[in-house]
Amino acid sequence: MDLIPILFRITIFILSFLYMIPLNEAAPTHSSPYDAITEFHIVFVIPITFHSTNILGTLFIFYRTYLRWKRDHRSIVLSLRFPFYLAITDFLYSSSDLINYSYSASNKSKFLNNEVITLPSPLCEIMGFSIVLFVSFNVLLVGAISIITWLRVVQEYYFELGKYDYKIWFPIVILSLIFPLSTLNAYGPTKYNCATKPEASAVMTIFFILIVLILATIVFCYVHILITIHRVKEENSSVSSSNNSWMYLNNIEKKTLKKVLTYILIFILQYVPVLIYNMCRLLKIQNFIIGVIVSSAISLGGIGNVIQYICNEGFRYQSSSVTCSDYKSETKAEADDEQKSNDDSIITNNV
């Protein structure tokens, strides 16, 4: 249950990479420690590889979700809808940034001659706006998932999400649109791609605050979930005479702890580099390696989502497979609570 110390050590470890970037090389300068060919391959090959991998992973989740919907002839439970929703945001981001980098990479000769290689205006501004929008979708969706899980597990509060879960998507879309629309003049061409302009400090500040708030939210929610599961396990073990029952509850707690740590770790790996990047930009520290790491790191969320999905659901689809439900839900005997019990499987299948 030592969740906070583990997360603190992981964060310190990631932040330590900031010291690997020498300030004399990171400061604005016309020279580069690499020749133009090496710089080209670092800047474009790495992000394109990560985005392509992420897109393949999201397509796998799309395909598996379609198979479950088609063969089971029923609505998909919440624990499987959330990975599908995350895959949508990951696909939108990676496909946009893949086009962004691929277009620039196709102008290699211009890059070697120090000419403009980005998309023409106004496509470049639209691309920069879209990337910020899709990243905002992803960040807010992660926060929404943690809050909904916390409400269902800790508060035992159930509410209808509406048709197509519009009660989740509507506030996310509205908030995500407010952020980039309030900074319309902040997007345009940079040296390598279309993104936020170097002088757009407002975007970096807002995004820094947003990531910190969402990180605090998911840590708060999932720590409380773990505490609740541990308390319920202790209460059941004190009244239960069955050793098998206690071992089952203990196993559920261990699996949930591992998945919670994985979920928070993915978010840290995904967005702590963005925090470092924003801090460097605000301090006028520039290094193209930081930008490469940020673009690639955001794709790690989608890749991690696919890995978790495969671990929970298996690589091959089996129509007879039963999703592992949360042990609290399995104690309910009423048949009309079956759908609610299936939705509760998010604790062990999606956190």
UniProtKB/TrEMBL annotation:
Domain of life the protein comes from: Eukaryota
UniProt-annotated location(s): Membrane
Membrane topology according to the record: Multi-pass membrane protein
Domain G-protein coupled receptors family 1 profile as annotated: residue spans: 53-309
Basic and acidic residues composition-biased segments: 332-343
Region called Disordered, residue ranges: 332-351
Residues annotated as signal peptide: 1-26
Keywords: Membrane, Signal, Transmembrane, Transmembrane helix
Family matches, as CDD domains: 7tm_classA_rhodopsin-like (cd00637)
Classification via Pfam families: 7tm_1
Claim: Transmembrane is one of the keywords in the record: yes
GO biological process assignments: adenylate cyclase-activating G protein-coupled receptor signaling pathway
GO MF annotation, one: G protein-coupled receptor activity
Keyword Ligase in record: no
Chain segments annotated as transmembrane: 42-63, 75-93, 126-148, 168-188, 200-223, 260-279, 285-307
A GO CC term assigned to this protein in UniProt: plasma membrane
Protein name per the record: G-protein coupled receptors family 1 profile domain-containing protein
